[in-house]
Design brief:
The protein is mainly alpha-helical and 305 residues long. The chain has 15 helices and no strands.
Length: 305
């Protein structure tokens, strides 16, 4: 039997609601993985692009692919991650290239399928970020960041959001040399552009803020870049239609900026105070906490504590 059919069949069984059938499917997946890891990973990436695949099977394909590349056991995380990295890098470069191409195609595939995002989209973003963190420090997949930035020029909101999630997870991993200094500025520009685009929906803005939060830690900004980021964050937080979750994410970014370069916030203190007053009058405790944290951070930085 063609192994691609075996993988489809195994995914269907492993995502079945019946415990016995699901157990059989899980065993099938383990056998296929042990039998031929390179083609197993390739077939999983192909399943993500298969028309008509049940969402349960697709989600499981994404999770299985992620777990094949990243450790899910906190006790063994670092050692297991290193082993999985060695296994990945030992695969034939042509196989790895095909898998990576399919993963990037999945971002566009999802954006064309429907207006709503697939439940597996976040997992796929994590897979791409994981591969990036394994390869880019070793001078491989060097064109990834450029391709992600190109995606941000798309008219598709769902493609923008999926791409922002990939960027969020890449920077969240805090792997040195994954994104070079000049690329960080380009990525930053694309994220700020998304924040400034009021035509995009709130979920895109929220994802952009989450990506921005992780990018801030890696960036050595000139003053104009800092100003652009502060203006964009304050503007998003101040919009009437911005929900509490977006406002909270915006304040998290302002806290991070205050930690790194509090003086850049000086021209924006009036609007920050106005946003703080609005938040404190509301009933969202987590948002209030971020507001208070911002001003404590500013105070501590100003007195050099």
């Amino acid at each position: 039997m063609d192994e691609s059919i075996d993988v489809s069949d195994a995914l269907a069984h492993a995502s079945h609601p019946d415990n016995n059938i699901r157990s059989i499917g899980e065993d099938m997946l383990k056998r296929l993985q042990n039998l031929d890891l390179p083609n197993f990973l390739l077939y999983l990436s192909s399943e993500l692009l298969r028309e008509g695949i049940p969402e349960e099977s697709r989600a499981l394909a994404a999770i299985t692919l992620k777990n094949s590349l990243d450790s899910k056991d906190p006790a063994l995380k670092d050692a297991h991650k290193d082993l999985l990295c060695i296994k990945w890098l030992s695969l034939d470069p042509s196989i790895r290239s095909e898998i990576k191409n399919k993963l990037l195609m999945t971002l566009e595939f999802d954006s064309r399928q429907s207006h709503s995002r697939h439940p597996s989209s976040k997992v796929i973003a994590k897979v791409i970020a994981r591969v990036a963190c394994m390869e880019i420090p070793r001078n491989q997949w060097l064109d990834l960041v450029g391709k992600l930035v190109d995606n941000m020029a798309s008219s598709s909101s769902s493609l923008k959001q999926a791409t922002l999630e990939v960027l969020q997870y890449i920077f969240e991993a805090k792997i040195p040399k994954v994104v070079k200094g000049d690329q960080v500025d380009v990525v930053m520009g694309s994220v700020i552009s998304a924040l400034n685009n009021q035509m995009l929906d709130s979920q895109v803005h929220l994802t952009a803020l989450k990506a921005l939060l992780n990018i801030l830690e890696f960036t050595k900004f000139e003053d104009h870049a800092w100003r652009n980021s502060v203006v964009a964050v304050c503007e998003v937080a101040g919009r009437i239609n911005s929900g509490a979750e977006i406002k909270e994410a915006a304040f998290e970014c302002l806290v991070a900026i205050a930690h790194t370069c509090h003086t850049i916030l000086e021209p924006y203190k009036e609007i920050m105070m106005s946003l703080t007053s609005q938040a404190l009058e509301g009933d969202v405790e987590s948002l209030k906490f971020q507001c208070i944290k911002l001003w404590i951070t500013v105070f501590q930085e100003e007195i050099g504590w």
